[in-house]
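ugh ok fine here u go
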Amino acid sequence: MLRFLFFLAVGVVLGGVLMMIIGHPGAAAWAFPTGMTVASLSGVLVLVARASSGLARADPAATRAAVEAGRLGLARIDALRQTGTRINDQPVCELELTVQPQDGPAFRAALRQIVPLTEIPAFQPGTVRAVAILVPGRPDVALVDEPATSAEAFRVVDAVPSASAAGPLRRSDPGGLRADGSRRSPLVGTGRRGRPLRMLGYALVLAVGVGIVLAPYRVAVAQTLAAIPEGRLHADLRSPEDLEAAVSALGHEIGHGNLVDVVVTDAYVIVDAPLSPGAIETDTWMYRGGLVEHRGAATIQPETELEQFDARDVDWAALWPAVEATAAEAGVTALDEVTLTLGRGTDSDIESETFGRSVGPVEVGFSFSDDYHSVSYRMDARGEAVEELG
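structure:
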């Protein structure tokens, strides 16, 4: 389960990285630090578990049951090797044993367990120890503190034979041994046979981790998938379909369609809108990465309700095609930095009570520039009547 937790955390990290690339600033900010923390902790535990794999993990009740049933024997230690792993500063050692049960033929068994430094002399090769046969017919044994000074102690008929006469070295199956002789097997096999299923399980869990992070930002993900064939990592919000979707999402969050100012770039759309239709108090909202962010009070507050306009009065789908057509006529090819600004024009009627205020018809402004020149344009809310301003 620790490995599944590790891959789940890795998926969360990957999801966080993806959102840093395709989402708005701060999107899924929790994912990367949380995923890294969990992945690091679970990874360390996996390494510890791997290093301690094969340790004698028999249930003490299983050992008592074997002793009470008389399944005892003598084991000669043929080899003692330190694995390089230490637990609580004590070495994990692998023992090679030749076991002579009280009844039945001798066999060889490998046993991995912690051997305290002070007890290593008692585990030197050639030493005979008492063992309990945990599972008849299997190489599952446990060293026990029974007298092993003579074969008569366990009524063993023959002395422990040589290792070569006891057959090949056998190892216990993975999993802890219960008192009834059954094993606590892992959900997914740890051997070669279980490897394809493990790999599939890890991939699925990793995908779940990514999905947990991306699910709240599925609109941004869908936009990115659609933009990748165009060589982009996010939608161009100036394009007709994406701009209409952005304005619709903004209107839904704001609660109405009255706007004061709009700025449209390829990556985000920012609008200033009144708190309610007819109100003067105005807040700023931003659409980016498929989400709308309420950014608080607008920097510049309007002076009159007449500065507002209805989003439905703008043909959003016609704006960018009009810009592209103007660029083509002007011989401009670099449009990545072009920004659209929308708002009411200034009242130029000197006799009007609103002279000098932004209460005129809705205007859309944009410009083309390079290192040497800059040309500005203005058109109406329908994407028509394009006028060069110089």
